[in-house]
Write a structure and sequence with these properties.
Layout (H helix, E strand, L loop, with lengths): L3 E4 L3 H13 L3 E7 L6 H4 L3 E6 L10 H11 L3 E3 L9 H9 L3 E2 L4 H8 L1 H10 L15 H11 L3 E9 L2 E6 L5 H16 L4 E5 L5 E9 L5 E13 L2 E7 L6 H18 L3 E10 L2 E8 L6 H8 L3 H9 L16 E8 L11 E2 L2 E3 L6 E5 L6 E2 L6 E9 L2 H14 L1 E3 L5 H9 L1 H5 L6 H11 L1
Parallel strand pairs: 1-2, 1-4, 2-3, 4-5
Antiparallel strand pairs: 6-7, 6-8, 9-10, 9-12, 10-11, 11-14, 12-13, 14-19, 15-18, 16-20, 17-19
The protein binds adenosine-5'-diphosphate.
C-alpha cells in the first residue's frame, strides 16, 4: 500500500480523499493555488504545496507544478478527484512515466471514453445498447440530414469531444438541422478545438440513470447499482438519488450484467460510471466517465462502501476481494448539491461565509470544505457543499433531507437551498415522477409565479 498520496484537487473532494487516506494510514499532500492558501483541504493535509496563481490553468491544471510537488514531497500516487485533470489521458500517462501511480483507469481507457464517438462504437461492439443515431462522426450536413430522416426528428447534434453540455444542439424539424449543425460545430471548435460531431435521436422524456462500476487490475468487475441524476439544469446535475425511483430490481440486474461484462472485456480498471438515458424501459448509453463522480456518496450510503478507499486499493494492485453477489443496496439516499448561487437566476454568489452550521443527526452526511469566515474564491466551481441523507425508504429520505436543509446555515452568500426545499416539497418529485426536462420546467414555473 502507498504511504503518501498527492491529491491534485481542491474543495470538498480533496477533503473527501484525505478522509479515506487518513483512515487507511496514508499521508496526504495537498496542492493549492495562491487563492486557496487558507482552504480547509490545505489546513487538514499532512503537507501542502502551492502550485501557482488563482487561475486553474496555472495551478490545478499545471501538470509540471503538480509533478514537482509530488517529487519534492515523495508522494507515490496521485488522486485527481473529479474535474481538473481527472479525465486527461496525457496527465495519467505522465504521472506513470514519472514512476507514480495514477489513481484511476489506464490512459488508454481515459482516451477511448473521452472521445464520445469512440466510446459509443466501443460500447456497441461490447453489446451495450445505444441511443439510435449516426454510426460515428458525420462527414457533412447531407449525411446529418440522412441520419435524421432515418431515426426521425427531433435529433441532437453532439460534439465528439463534448462535456458540460457544450457543443450540443437540438433540431426539432428538418428546417432546423442546418443551423444545429453549424452552431454545434462552431461551439465544439471553440470549446474543444475539435469540430467533429455526431447525431442522436433526441429523447423527449428520458431519465438520466448511471451505473457505478469498479474493476480491479485482475479482471474482476462489479457494479454498485444506479444513481438517478435526472434533475439537471443546463445539463448540470443538482439533486441525485440512489436507487432510481423508476427502476425495478430485474432492470437493475440486467443493465448491471450487460455493463460489467462489457467493462470486464475491455479490461477496465478502477472506478467508472456508465451514463444512460432511460425511457420506456429501454437503456441507451450516452457516455462513460472514467473517474469518481461528484454524486458518488449516494452510492456509498446505499451500498456501505468507501469508493475512494476502493480506488486506492485498486491502484495499489489489490484485488476487489468480493463479487457481485456480496454487494447489496439498502435503503435510499439523496444528495443535494449546495451551490453558492442565486436560487432563481443561478448567478454565482462568491463572498465570505460569516456563519456556517452543518446539519447532523442520524443518516446525514455533509461533504464540504466550508468553515465560518471562509472566503469563497470567484475562480472555481460554485459548489460549496454536498448534503447527503440515507434512510430506510425514499419517503423517509425526503423527510430527512427536508429536516437537514432546515438545520443548515450558510450565511453571507446566496445558495440554492431554497430551491432544494421547493423541489423536495413538490408532489411530482415526491412521487418520483420526473424526467431530465422536469427541473428546467419547474424553475421556469417558479420564476413565473
Ligand atoms: P456532456 O458530456 O456534455 O454532459 P452528455 O452526453 O452526458 O453530455 O449529455 C448531457 C445531458 O444532455 C444528459 O444527461 C441529458 O440530460 C441530455 N442528453 C444527452 N443526449 C440526449 C439525447 N439523445 N436526448 C435527450 N437528451 C439528451
Amino acid at each position: 500500500m502507498f504511504s503518501k498520496i498527492l491529491i491534485a484537487n481542491r474543495g470538498e473532494i480533496a477533503l473527501r480523499i484525505q478522509r479515506a487516506c487518513r483512515e487507511m494510514g496514508i499521508k496526504t499532500v495537498a496542492v493549492h493555488s495562491t487563492a486557496d492558501a487558507d482552504a480547509m483541504h490545505v489546513r487538514l493535509a499532512d503537507e501542502a504545496v502551492c502550485i501557482g496563481p488563482p487561475s486553474s490553468r496555472d495551478s490545478y491544471l499545471n501538470v509540471a507544478a503538480i509533478l514537482s510537488a509530488a517529487t519534492i514531497t515523495g508522494a507515490e500516487a496521485i488522486h485527481p478527484g473529479y474535474g481538473f485533470l481527472s479525465e486527461n489521458a496525457e496527465f495519467a500517462e505522465t504521472v506513470e512515466e514519472h514512476g507514480l501511480a495514477f489513481i484511476g483507469p489506464t490512459a488508454q481507457h481515459i482516451r477511448m471514453m473521452g472521445d464520445k464517438i469512440t466510446a459509443k462504437t466501443t460500447m456497441r461492439e461490447l453489446g451495450v445498447p445505444l441511443v439510435p443515431g449516426s454510426d460515428g462522426a458525420l462527414p457533412d450536413l447531407q449525411s446529418a440530414r440522412e441520419v435524421a430522416e432515418r431515426v426521425g426528428y427531433p435529433v441532437l447534434i453532439k460534439a465528439a469531444a463534448g462535456g458540460g453540455g457544450r457543443g450540443m444542439k437540438v433540431a426539432k424539424t428538418a428546417d432546423e438541422i442546418e443551423e444545429a449543425w453549424t452552431v454545434a460545430r462552431t461551439e465544439a471548435r471553440a470549446a474543444f478545438g475539435n469540430d467533429e460531431v455526431y447525431l442522436e435521436k433526441y429523447l423527449n422524456r428520458p431519465r438520466h440513470i448511471e451505473l457505478q462500476i469498479l474493476g480491479d487490475a485482475h479482471g474482476n468487475v462489479v457494479h454498485f447499482g444506479e444513481r438517478d441524476c435526472s434533475l439537471q439544469r443546463r445539463h448540470q446535475k443538482l439533486l441525485e438519488e440512489a436507487g432510481s425511483p423508476a427502476l425495478t430490481d430485474a432492470e437493475r440486474e440486467e443493465i448491471g450484467r450487460t455493463s460489467t461484462e462489457a467493462l470486464a472485456r475491455m479490461g477496465y480498471r478502477n472506478a467508472g460510471t456508465l451514463e444512460f438515458l432511460y425511457q420506456d424501459g429501454q437503456f441507451c448509453f450516452i457516455e462513460m466517465n472514467t473517474r469518481l463522480q461528484v454524486e458518488h456518496p449516494v452510492t456509498e450510503m446505499v451500498c456501505s462502501v468507501d469508493l475512494v478507499r476502493e480506488q486506492i486499493r485498486i491502484a495499489a494492485g489489490e484485488k476487489l476481494g468480493y463479487t457481485q453477489k456480496d454487494i447489496k443496496m439498502s435503503g435510499h439516499a439523496i444528495e443535494c448539491r449546495i451551490n453558492a448561487e442565486n436560487p432563481a437566476t443561478f448567478a454565482p454568489s462568491p463572498g465570505t461565509v460569516n456563519v456556517f452550521h452543518a446539519p447532523g443527526g442520524l443518516g446525514v452526511r455533509m461533504d464540504s470544505a466550508l468553515y465560518a469566515g471562509y472566503r469563497i474564491p470567484p475562480y472555481y466551481d460554485s459548489m460549496i457543499a454536498k448534503l447527503i441523507v440515507h434512510a430506510p425508504t425514499r419517503q423517509e429520505a425526503i423527510a430527512r433531507m427536508q429536516r437537514a436543509l432546515d438545520e443548515c446555515v450558510v450565511d453571507g452568500v446566496q445558495t440554492v437551498i431554497p430551491l432544494h426545499r421547493k423541489i423536495l416539497a413538490d408532489p411530482s418529485f415526491q412521487k418520483g415522477d420526473y424526467t431530465i426536462h422536469w427541473l428546467e420546467n419547474f424553475v421556469a414555473e417558479q420564476t413565473k409565479s
